[in-house]
Structure of Glutamine-dependent NAD(+) synthetase:
Amino acid sequence: MGRVVAVATCALNQWALDFEGNLERIFRSINIAKSKGARYRLGPELEICGYGCSDHYYESDTLLHSFQVLEKLLESPISQDIICDVGMPVLHKNVRYNCRVIFLNKKILLIRPKISLANAGNYRELRWFTPWSKARHVEEFFLPRIIQEVTGQQTVPFGDAVLATEDTCLGSEICEELWAPNSPHIEMGLDGVEIFTNSSGSHHVLRKAHARVDLVNSATAKNGGIYILANQKGCDGDRLYYDGCAMISMNGETIAQGSQFSLDDVEVLVATLDLEDVRSYRAEISSRNLAASKVNPYPRVKVNFALSCPDDVAVPTCMPIQWRHHSPEEEISLGPACWLWDYLRRSKQAGFFLPLSGGIDSSATACIVYSMCHQVCLAVKYGNADVLADARRIVNDETYIPEDPREFCKRVFTTCYMASENSSQDTCNRAKLLAEQIGSYHINLNIDVAVKAVVGIFSVMTGRTPRFSVCGGSSRESLALQNVQARIRMVLAYLFAQLTLWARGMAGGLLVLGSANVDESLRGYLTKYDCSSADINPIGGISKTDLKSFIQYCIENFQLTALRSIMSAPPTAELEPLVDGQVAQTDEADMGMTYAELSIYGKLRKIAKAGPYSMFLKLINMWKEICTPREVASKVKHFFRMYSVNRHKMTTLTPSYHAENYSPDDNRFDLRPFLYNTSWSWQFRCIEKQVNAL
């Protein structure tokens, strides 16, 4: 009697609508799983077409091509003698579902539609799919002819059912269902399901991984069982980075852990586990057994196949391990770096261009690119042929081997300090020293000629010459002059990104990187269409506070000593004239608030769903030791005025790596108006009434 089962899960770097590449990666994962003795293979959510297809799900082509890929999988000898569990969209009775298709030896066993759809934050699954609402109900699904010709089946079971093999019982969950308060694994476990599977499309957020791990382990801690989780990894075409973390858990303990950040397109985990450990664990939980005796049974699809071998007495089983979590600084170093690599190789560009100001934000962006170069060199060192092939194509050298991160950085990364008469020598020196230490190709240029030319056109046409406020001009004049500098930098950034390699006799163009952090975007402390306007922004979802910690991490781990002076310098835009040769303008003075305060405002506004009045009520308690109610009211009003005045800038925000749950990204995460009544008269009156009462 077999009792030791071998199961496999994986993290795949799938790409939306890349059916050819997605199929190849699925085949590779099945091959690896079989070579390690697995009898069941689980893949990520919607892995056939890629999770991020968005409105392409409406297209019949997406459904057609998904079935064409399924046909290739079914007929291939690679997928024989192993239960394969793949994800794809399926149209059943003219309703589109997010499904798992489970097959064995050219026969489809079950199509299991998703029950709980993700529809918050970055997710819009209800826009494209309908949840399956018929609990424990199965219908007949009529297969397309191309599939019938391979399987010999006309119909297959479609619905909420479980698989009964010769030695155990398996039940499926799909991503969000693990996070739901009434997760299917609860009732399935009571009905005798011993192995739970979860195919996910779960993205990275700073400090989120532990929540996913805790949910998986707790799923089997109370009920016993084996839980297998697969996840998408990489950038599949938008702002999100899916962070892998495939895992296998048993009876509340982690058995196998996949990497969270990796340049490997295919990662497969295999574990051998003793079913008797599940049965003995459950046997002594009397409350579970009482509930199990009353549970409504699931339809069972009988499978003439076993996950174990008859003679497995000598087969060693896997033991529990301690999950190793990354620090937030490590997450910033690795997550955006992997996202940048995916974007670079898939966009078929030759590298990145960054306006490097010598401040914390652009320096942090440069460090992330440097970290990417580190990851590339490590991947090649450990034999990753895909990364080597991509690196050779990017640098246009078929014999090249990236071994030194600084040398690779020189080939793929161009930094540029764009000085003006308002720039200090200190920031120029800081930018130059950091570029030397990371190895980037660095350019120093001066924009004054272009600024004077643009302002000169205005003066010729109007007969008026605007002045900075320190020179007697109005705030309107001063702001306009600052914005001209900022916008000229953006124009020059794109010019140099397109032609720098051409001027150096090299092929290709460069992607322009932005470096506005999440707090500046929230406050609107940026010029519309300045250097915050770029192709992509790896730090656009990261707070200033976390970026400072990341800079300290880079000093210690990459030995980038140039960052010490950058850390100690006050953040400044350097757009106003110097005073006695020194910078007089600082970000926090300009904003009228600190970055620490901004981070708190952002979390209350987005995560706590607080409007002006609710934010005031929360902050008078949070800040009671440092601010009077009148001071809190003044701060809250100032924030909401500035936020609403500048909200229009979010409509043009550069696509940014999503890392914070208080991101103001207007594209799909933070959906709000961009034309506000900025007086907030009713809301502020409520605050005033409360202040007077206090």
Notes: The chain has a mean pLDDT of 94. The chain has three domains: 4-302, 328-447+490-590, 592-693.
